[in-house]
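A note on notation is needed here, since sequence and fold are reported together in a single record. The reader may check this reading against the record printed directly beneath this paragraph.
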Amino acid sequence: MMDNKSIKKLESDLWESADLLRAGSKLTSNQYCMPVLGLLFLRYAYSRFKMVEEEILKTRPVRNGRQMPVEASDFTAKSALFLPKEAQYSYLVNLPSNVASMGLVNVDGQPMASLGEVVNNAMNLVEQQSEQLTGVLPKSYTDFSDDLLGELLRIFNNNALDEVGGDVIGRIYEYFLNKFAKNIASDDGVFFTPKSLVKMIVNILEPKQGVLLDPACGSGGMFVQTGDFVNEAGLQANSSMTFYGQEKVEYNAQLCLMNMAVHGLTGVIKSGDEANSFYHDAHNLEGQCNYVMANPPFNVDKVKAESATNAGRLPFGVPKENKNKEIGNANYLWISYFYAYLNETGRAGFVMASSATDSQGSDKDIREKLVKTGHVDVMISVGNNFFYTKSLPCSLWFYDKGKNDVIKDKVLFIDARNYYTVVDRTLNEWSEWQLKNLNAIVWLYRGETEKYQTLLEEYKTTIATLVSEIGEAGLNAVNEDVFGEGIEVVKKQLKALKENSKKVVEAADRKDKKRVQAEWDEKIADVTEIAKIVKEAHWLYSKFGNGTYQDIPGLCKIAYTTKDKKTDENDISIEDKGWSLTPGAYVGVAPVEDDGVDFEERMAEIHQELLSLQAESNELMDAISQNMKEMGL
């Protein structure tokens, strides 16, 4: 079984190899994205095919001394794709360089003269085995030279991908999708919702069974994460959940269907004009959904008011139209749709532009009606740089029509704009532990103290295991007080390691310096990882102790929906705030805290970034100067 560090390295190595080939070709990221993801899909299908085939052969009958061959129906019974020989990855990767000399023919009986044609044929053969994949898989492999395509096939012919089958390949598919999203910025990146936002939505909704709709499904991240959540709970996602999606852009719908297939999920995804959610309830699901999740396009304008009105799903009325009989901002169409799709106990979670929490005019009227239902559950403000192609902040909205009596007239506000992990200069995210911590606030608001207690135990167990594995004697004391002085113990040990590293590396022989440095870097990285976890444990426990919710200035606040629901004159209601759903209006300002950033390290990073920018600037100036000379200027 591969550990997390090995998987991350595999992801990175495969991406670097594949992207190096793209850089050496004349293909753009847009041309390259779908075919590469198609090969990853084919590699997944083959890995699962071999695993299921092995299971089938264990009980396959023998006749006349020979074991009966497997058949397509055997695989259907086990929810796996049957792959004809010509669609199996091992067949493709072992083809000789001169394909034309083999006399191969495709499914239509036409001769094939290139590797690209053979791979296109493999995709056609796979589609014949699955109605869900019909017309979905890429067939543009003749755009690739045989050499480039052959090298790509070899890159993904990595035995490590078979060690845990679809789990690893599914992660790698998402990793590649993430990377391509940055490069392509298709439709402002709407086809890819950052994983930490998706996880937050799924974790708070806690899907178990029933109908899930994403009416702006993009590449299917909500479905995939829901599948993971349900499977981890010990259920089978495909039998517990029914997945429905709408996606106007057909390219994105293809990504979605492949993404679901790589993760072993089935669903009904509609695309094209009939899947434009402003004008169509493509699956007729109004009032039928247990869960609704989405990251819809923000601030869409020029939506035809009459068509949107006729399409329904607007329980709080239609946003005001302009003189052109258009709705100038469609945010509150989406906000209404997500509510309308829910059944009597349904939950919804979605991403929305921050401006929508406090917009005025008809938006405010709709928001007032929405709040008065008592079904707004949680509102979370998200900081800048969470999207790959947008730097603007956003909000996460949550509805729950099945709230318990204690919180039915309340809303939890969380301002998480200052709580995140910096990935690089332009991207932030929530780490796994930060996701758990924010989720823990929701648990305490809902009265689910046992889940909070389980998280505290998880912190203790995880930290104790990592300390034991590293074997640093100076860290042993951290286990005695994980949530208190443990953070100081780790900081002290980390500082000592860095100081010792410098001394040891300086004293090492020149030929050994690189090896010694690598050894110390690994040790420092391990302790740094423990430090991050201890810091998050301290962050949570210092605010909520053993599990008592309290409003934390600058972070979280529970507000009543209307004035008449308040039990104390010092309480605050959403009505008091003019029906605003902006968390910052309720939580106030946090006291200034030490952010834990090492000043010297951060200054060194900034210096390196500055040098890099200066070098780019110099190269650009040289290019401009050369161009002007060539133009005689």
User: Anything to note?
Assistant: The radius of gyration is 27 Å. The chain has a mean pLDDT of 88.
